[in-house]
Design goal:
Keywords: Membrane, Transmembrane, Transmembrane helix. There is one protein chain. By secondary structure, the chain is mostly helical. 69% of the residues lie in helices and 0% in strands. It has 12 helices and no strands. Helix 6 packs antiparallel against helix 7. It starts with 15 loop residues before the first helix and ends with a helix.
Length: 275
């Protein structure tokens, strides 16, 4: 796909093992590019949650924060996807002066995608308050860490049983994000059509390569209950959100390119040299 006319269906099967290998190879090669793009979204996320948490009921604060994440996700996603798909290494710190139509479209679709899993916020709160659990970091302003790992496995089971089908839908529709980042005319209908025959493979790859490592870290035992250490964990948790999102977006970039046959448009500057 090199124009504004996407193919009607996936142009090829998405290989599971090869895609996982390519994903990790990409993250390794582009580690410095990803790292420099994680700082600003992390700081914005922490600042907003502290601000909302100090003013609002915990549930309302978390809902607002969850929806607000579409903004730092946009700052990360546009820059990161353009680096992966176009080799565009423009500094991510220029985004505030360059929040153009591309960013606005990305933000709109990111916000719409977050609405798919928004019901899980209320489910999580109900499970936590029903079990009397506090957040994993012991702060009533942030239950983004779910229940403490292993304290209520039944509640965790309910949560993940509800999460996985919503994640499957969100994953398939998220094909729209790399398309927007590279200025293709593309919508949810195109994303759903291109993943129609590849949804199972895409879900399996995401579960193994992206969601799996996150769960290993998330359910690892806490090292200390000291307040200073908990603050470190709190900050690292926010950093890990965007690290996880960076891996997720890298998978989308690879899968989008493979399933749609997308290649960058020819560089007019090079063509003009031979005209």
């Amino acid at each position: 796909m090199i124009s504004n006319e996407p193919p009607q269906e996936a142009v090829g099967a998405l290989p599971v093992s090869a895609t996982i290998v390519e994903l990790y190879a990409t993250l390794y090669r582009r580690a410095s590019g990803l790292a420099v793009r994680l700082g600003l979204p992390t700081v914005i996320s922490i600042f907003f949650l502290f601000l909302a948490g100090g003013q609002l009921h915990p549930l309302f604060a978390y809902v607002l924060w969850y929806l607000f994440l579409a903004l730092p996700m946009t700052l990360l996603g546009v820059s990161w996807l353009r680096l992966l798909l176009l080799g565009d290494n423009k500094t991510p710190f220029a985004v505030f002066s360059d929040f153009d139509e591309r960013h606005r479209r990305f933000f709109k679709y990111s916000l719409l995608l977050s609405l798919i899993t928004l019901p899980l916020v209320f489910l999580q709160y109900a499970l936590e308050t029903g079990s009397g659990a506090n957040g994993a970091e012991g702060q009533n302003t942030d239950f983004a860490d779910d229940t403490a790992a292993g304290e209520n496995p039944f509640a965790d089971l309910i949560y993940w049983m509800a999460y996985l089908p919503l994640f499957y839908i969100q994953l398939r529709l998220s094909f729209v994000l790399p398309a927007i980042a590279v200025d293709e005319t593309y919508g949810f209908a195109d994303a759903w059509r291109h993943t129609q025959s590849q949804g199972g493979r895409l879900f399996l790859i995401a579960a193994i390569a992206v969601l799996g490592p996150w769960l290993v870290w998330y359910y690892s035992p806490a090292w200390s209950d000291e307040p200073l250490w908990q603050l470190v964990v709190f900050c690292f948790y926010h950093f890990s959100i965007f690290l996880h999102q960076g891996a997720f977006l890298a998978l989308l970039a690879i899968a989008f390119r493979s399933c749609t046959g997308w290649v960058p448009a020819p560089d007019r500057r090079i063509i003009e040299r031979f005209e």
